[in-house]
What we know:
By secondary structure, the chain is an alpha/beta fold. It has 24 helices and 21 strands. The strands form four sheets. A seven-stranded parallel sheet has the order 9-10-8-11-12-7-13, with helices on both faces. A six-stranded antiparallel barrel has the order 1-2-5-4-3-6. Helix 16 (458-468) links the parallel strand 14 (452-453) and strand 15. The N and C termini lie far apart (59 Å). Residues 206-208, 211, 229, 231-237, 454, 600 line the site of adenosine-5'-triphosphate. Its EC number is 3.6.4.12.
Amino acid sequence: MAVLASAGSPADSQLHPHLAHLTALLALERSHALASSLDALTHLAPQTLQARGLSLLAVRLTATRTGLGGKLLAEFQRDDAASFPAQHAFRVGDVVGVVVGKKRAAAKTAESNGGVDNNAEGVVTRVEDARLTVAFKEDFEDAWEGKILRIDKLANDTPYVRMSAALAAVQNQIVANSLSPILRVLLENRAPTFRDRVELQLYNEALNESQREAVSFALSANECALIHGPPGTGKTETVVELVRQFVKLGLRVLVCGPSNISVDNIVERLSSTRIPLVRIGHPARVLPSVLSSTLDHVLKNSDAAQLVLDMRAEIDSNIRKLAKTKSRTERKQLWQANKDLRRDLRTRERAALDSIVSASRVVLCTLAGCGSRTVLMNAGEFDVVVVDEASQALEAETYVALLRAPRAVFAGDHRQLPPTVRSANANKGGFATTVFDRLAKRCPFAMRMLDTQYRMNEAIMGWANGAMYEGLLKGHESVRTRLLCDLQGVSETDETRAAVMWIDTAGCDMWEAAPADDKDLQGDSHSRSRTNPAEAELVAKHVETLLDAGVAPASIAVVTPYAAQVGLVRAELATRLVSASSRVINPTEIEVGTVDGFQGREKDAIVISLVRSSDAIGISGSGSAEVGFLRDERRMNVAVTRARRHVCVVGDSETMERAGGVLKGLVEWFFEHGEVVSAHA
Ligand SMILES: Nc1ncnc2c1ncn2[C@@H]1O[C@H](COP(=O)(O)OP(=O)(O)OP(=O)(O)O)[C@@H](O)[C@H]1O
């Protein structure tokens, strides 16, 4: 890959085999992720792109302001000032590119974002009916003034660039023999070591025994420790306590997760403590509740902000003058003045940002965010990195964070789904295997499991406990017997009294629909191809029964492994619920999604549509039914453990039993411990 092959890179013979393998897989994944966007942008007609929601045509620059970091905040509207097409897919946080005219220049390679030879890339900060606001690092006003423009949604290449750079940096450390202790454990197969424990003075006295043990154990790790948190066991609570303990010891902590939401969950809980912390990340991409912890916000309220206020005022006054000036020469001068002012502003703000970051005891950002300039400036200054949702993080992206500290704690659950990998070949090569997976397998002694869950009725927990957690999980007494009928306004019915239920389609000829294209066995495309219309009807009927008993729509979610089934269930719910005229329910309040998309979430009632149902067709030579990626036990684990009070599986028990393994066990457990109803009933 480009980064490893660059000047000063090690010779092939010095490449660490595992890093070389990861680098190759990263290249596959990156080109797969960028290819579809690149293809569309360079080969589809502008009108087609607009119809698909990927481009906005015939727009103009209507206003500019100066945002934090000297960024140019540009507002765009359609030339006719009308609303944007309803189907557009532009969202806050998206990376977009602006082109003068209607056509994009032909792509060169996938190396630049989307392959376009245009560097006017920005991040969407606001989406309104007829106005789009985008933040740019550079000035483009003079190029866009008075012109008809086109805005395209681009693939975000930044994470891939940062992962590449991290792998190359680690490789260089190997050559220089300067690997940090945590990287030595990972890449030289050294065993993690632990020091003597010290007595703990907890901030959160409510932590249970296993949470306390996990905190104390992680504090004693010299290189790394794993905190295994099955669903609802208070992983985040534990991580928050751990971070506070690290700070108490005088350490500087970098807290990361693979997604913005994983980071924000911790920011939300940590910000109520008095620890000086800062959340690094584009404000457009963070939860509104944590905005006040973002670097941009802290900067705005710092002393340094005063210094730059005058400069901003001058820029904005130039912008006002520009609106009144007709002279081309004068306009050019004003643009140039603003360019210079913004550059100056950026330099000053950068210095201020760096001083805020270095004064923070705790810095929080995504794993890929650790490769940003702001964090890089502080490289080497962190004592420990804490990675939450580590079992959802690509190994390559984890290295971006691991380069910043000698020691790490990983929290996650390798019994739930791994990170999504789009390229089938990268997946086959093991790109979804996480650092957490590797360490949990190689060094189980470096892991502590949280054993008390605060989410599920005991019957819901039961199957997952046996199948995934060696029976070590306990239900806290506050949740052990919780049912839907205990909720206010919910009446007692067979359904609301049942924690675990199976609506069985066996023998009902409710077959799955033939896949549209079964050739592509890559996870998501494969999943998109399966539906089961009769099952969708049963799901909608069950949801209606729950609503009739008084369960709130927002307390119910439907999950299914197959993306195509999501659409079918939504349509079925809309038809069924809207046609019942006595009901004042908006069917969209009931969340319907894929199992993969619902990881990390929970609801009082979960209805699972299994989809797969076949008789002789699809039975393999071994006699087991072909059930595709439903067989992944981690997917079933995630599906079932989203529920607090009620989980209802709608599916064909015969097909599942023939599939064997975890699915056979699921049927047996539900049939023994739950309410079973035939779809015939
Ligand atoms: N020791 C405890 N005593 C009482 N409640 C607790 C305790 N630890 C966690 N909880 C509660 O359990 C719930 C789940 O906790 P938390 O969000 O930390 O879990 P998690 O493991 O991060 O969840 P997920 O499975 O979604 O990753 C929260 O409502 C939290 O307040």
